[in-house]
From TrEMBL:
Underlying gene: queE
Cofactor(s) needed by this chain: Mg(2+); S-adenosyl-L-methionine; [4Fe-4S] cluster
Pathway: Purine metabolism; 7-cyano-7-deazaguanine biosynthesis
Residues bound to S-adenosyl-L-methionine: 49-51, 85, 126-128
Record note on quaternary structure: Homodimer.
Residue ranges constituting the Radical SAM core domain according to the UniProt record: 30-209
Protein name: 7-carboxy-7-deazaguanine synthase
Organism of derivation: Neotamlana laminarinivorans
Family membership noted in the UniProt record: Belongs to the radical SAM superfamily. 7-carboxy-7-deazaguanine synthase family.
Length: 209
């Protein structure tokens, strides 16, 4: 990457854009609603079950001017979801400031492992054991979405729930490849612990991005 481009990426004025698309939010509180997704490349959290491992290497995704990203986004939806990868590896303030200036709602999906930057209307925190979220992201999260791959993830979920604010909505979501095994466990757990809700990857059932 050329030095001047790298400098712009470091400032958040360009970002390694993997993909952008208009679809239906499939998970969490806003499931079923239309949203424009911006997927930013780069992630070192390393979940072995990640379904977008092609996002991990930021160098595979072209640095893109945020003005172009905003121009595309505003033509589709008033709700913009920034996801990854791990978007907080980059400075999100320039992009979100421009999105907000266009009157758009800004949502983020993050592991919370990095410093919180950006101006957000909704923060979906999906913490991972390999790289725990910062205290700031935990305290600011609007929803906590814990992926359940095995029984130990219930213990982890409770640990993370103890760190979020009292208004944060708590979700347990089955890891897609293990859904047949863990869905019954999640159902039983939520019935016994009704502070939690079930989140499903409904976009996969709908066969949409």
């Amino acid at each position: 990457m050329k030095n001047n481009v790298q400098e712009l990426v470091n400032k958040g004025e360009m970002l390694p854009l993997m993909e952008e698309f208009y679809t239906i939010q499939g998970e969490g509180f806003y499931k079923g609603t239309a949203a424009y997704f911006i997927r930013i490349g780069g992630c070192d959290v390393g979940c072995h079950w990640c379904d977008v491992k092609e996002s991990w290497n930021a160098n595979l995704h072209p640095p893109t001017e945020i003005n172009k990203i905003v121009k595309n986004a505003k033509t589709y939806s008033d709700t913009i979801v920034i996801t990854g990868g791990e978007p907080l590896m980059w400075d999100m303030k320039p992009l979100t400031t421009k999105l907000k200036a266009e009157g758009l709602k800004t949502h983020i999906e993050t592991s919370g492992a990095y410093k919180l930057t950006g101006v957000w209307d909704w923060i979906c925190l999906s913490p991972k054991k390999m790289k725990l979220p910062t205290e700031e992201v935990s305290e600011r999260a609007n929803e906590l979405k814990v992926i359940v791959y095995n029984k130990d993830d219930f213990r982890f979920a409770e640990e993370q729930a103890a760190k979020v604010n009292k208004d944060c909505i708590l979700y347990l979501q089955p890891e897609w490849s293990k859904r047949d095994k863990v869905v019954p466990l999640i159902v039983d757990y939520v019935m016994q612990n009704p502070k939690w809700k079930v989140s499903l990857q409904t976009h996969k059932y709908l066969n949409i991005p």
